[in-house]
Amino acid sequence: MDSILQNAVQSAQKAEIAFTKFITANDTGTTGGHQSGFHIHKNAWPLFFSKPGEKGSNRDLMVTIKWQNDFITTSRFIYYGVGTRNEYRLTRFGKGFPFLTEDNVGDLLILCKRESENYEAFVLQKDEEIEDFLAALNITVNDTNKIIPKQFELSREDKMYQCFITYLKSLKIDFPVTTELSLNARRCFNNAFEIKLNQVINDPDNILINWLDAEFKLFKTIENDRYAIRINTPFSSVEELVETANTILNRRKSRAGKSLEHHLTEVFSLSQVSFESQVNTEGNKKPDFLFPSQEAYLNPRFNPEKLCVLASKTTCKDRWRQILNEADRIKTKHLFTLQQGISSNQLDEMIKSNVQLVVPRFYISSFPTKYRDQILTLGSFIKYIQTTQT
Description:
By secondary structure, this protein is of the alpha+beta class. The chain folds into 3 domains: 3-147, At1g16640 B3 domain; 156-270, 3-Layer(aba) Sandwich (Restriction Endonuclease), CATH 3.40.91.80; 276-388, Restriction Endonuclease, CATH 3.40.91. The chain is 38% helix and 18% strand. It has helices spanning 3-14, 25-28, 127-136, 156-170, 178-192, 197-202, 204-231, 238-270, 294-298, 344-352, 378-388, and strands spanning 17-22, 38-40, 59-67, 71-80, 87-91, 108-115, 118-124, 146-147, 276-277, 289-291, 308-313, 333-337, 355-358. The strands form 2 sheets. An 8-stranded mixed beta sheet has the order 2-5-4-3-7-6-1-8.
């Protein structure tokens, strides 16, 4: 790669903001216009200013520009807003400036903001150089005359998938256990999106949904890798096909059944509420979550109003009745679900049975209007638990 081209690519990739355009006859003054200097599109004002120019007044900024990694100009970026004008230009390059001649029309100008009022600029003249630059930055001709999108940076989603692949390569077994899958999904998501503890505490509904989504994507990544060869190989019999299909479906259901419980456990732990999961209440009854503890529940002197039970079910249209006898000392049974929408008749039945629904706040709008105020979000449920433990 030519040194000028290579420097232009690297500068654009490292720049705080980068802009590119084809030099026009209007820029060079060969159209007979009264103003020469590079015309900068209005959408590129962040390249120089903190806010766009305002009609009715001019505004300018003196900047230092290093051209072709070679020579420097002290140039003027100006917004013309007086009278009929409403445009931005880059002007003042000094005598003998080589890139504002008629021969430069059609060349590609690249402007890169490095820091404060210091810039780097490059002019590419050959078709091959221009095409190589556009390819390196993953843009097309239609993406010129504007700020270059930072497509060269990995998106947060890409970073998460990179983490998935790294984890996949480290696996010594076909599929991890569900707790490990959930843990690594959270790790990859939190690292990629820079999730802090206060975000989990302040917005558990949003974080939980994102963790669940991340785990599903991680699971699909592993599944596609593990079965890539198998699904592209003919099955020797119908029985083998059915056996493989059942294995895949059972693993999917097993993961989905545990995923919600694992991520709720993490939310409750980070929220610093006291709880235990899958502990006995009466006989063989094992609710998903018991607050504050099994010891408190089994202590007849412990105030029952400070006890709470929570079941977690991905869907609950029919299965909500299963929780009614999970903890006899606790009158109101809380049920967290990802179910979106339940009929009025079933909601009435739940209320009569002292079942308090808890759903992510994004799902509340899927329920009948008159019941929405009676449904808790995950955040409000945690606040309720905190009041019982103070």
